[in-house]
Amino acid sequence: MKIKTLLMALLCAMMLAACRGDKEAEKPKIAVVISTLNNPWFVVLAEAAAKNATELGYEAKIFDSQNNPSTESDNFENLISSGFDAILFNPTDADGSIVNILKAKTAGIPVFCMDREVNSDDAATCQILSDNYSGCVDVGIEFVKALNEKGTYVEILGLVGDNNTWARSGGFHSVVDKFPGLKMVAQQTADFDRNKAMEVLETVMQANPDIDAVFCGNDAMALGAYQALLSAGKADKVKVFGFDGAGEVIEKIKEGKIVATGLQHPLVMAETAAKFADEFIKGRTVFPQRVPVEVNLINASNAAQF
Predict the structure, then answer these.
(1) Whole-structure pTM value
(2) For residue 25, what pLDDT is reported?
(3) Contact by Cβ (8 Å): 256, 238
(4) I need a labelling partner for 38 at 20 to 30 A (CA). Which of 22, 181, 223, 236 fits?
(5) Low-confidence ranges of the chain (pLDDT < 50)
(6) Is 256 exposed, middle or buried (0-12, 13-18, 19+ CB in 10 A)?
(7) Alpha-carbon distance 256 to 178, whole Å?
(8) How far apart are CA 289 and CA 245, in angstroms?
(9) Terminus-to-terminus CA distance in the chain, angstroms?
């Protein structure tokens, strides 16, 4: 009887040790939910966020919302039911994404927004955002200088539901609208998409063939606009401005094909979001609602440094 009791006790101890081992082997999980991976800039943001989370000891998985609020909602349902411990989030829509954040919050999962903002101070745990307005003030100043305060131009906007679209446009116009010699002949959206921007500018130039410049709300659209100008034989006559700091655009600035861009810092945003998620999981409870990240103007004078 004593031997049987000892064997049962030993078996229970082994089972408990195995259970503890399984729990210790399970890594906490961080989800990286990105608006679209169809844009190289967001690929950098996603991969950097996942890399930082992994280096902090977490299992990281990237979810692509494909710029579709419905897909984003499905991603949240999936990761909530899968037991993720935190979400590093790049929203598809400033208003529409709030409901998804609140679902995660109800489930006890903190959400840290990266680059794109939502219109709520009570949803995300923290929002780490580029200073888009100030960055485009600098682009606007460069625009005025490059055009010598006069000329006609086109503005190509990003997603209408993204606050970054309007912050960038607002910063740009806060400067450019002070110069009556600069006239905007068209303002259209291209959803931050390279191909759409090319198509938009091709259509706009049919009615406005003699424009002097194009301001684009991101670098993908600037590249699309440049391609449209190249196809029309006007790439050397029309000045192009972007925003993001994409490597391809910086190369074109060095070559004199694009005038300027605003350099965002996705690596800084990704690192900060992952660091904050780690601190939350380890017990930190108070975070600033918004953390601004500086944007740097890139033009011919400093492009070689990047």
Answers:
(1) 0.83
(2) 56
(3) no
(4) 236
(5) 1-2, 5-7, 9-14, 16-24
(6) exposed
(7) 27
(8) 25
(9) 77
Tokens (6 digits) for 108: 């006890």
- Amino acid symbol at 205: M
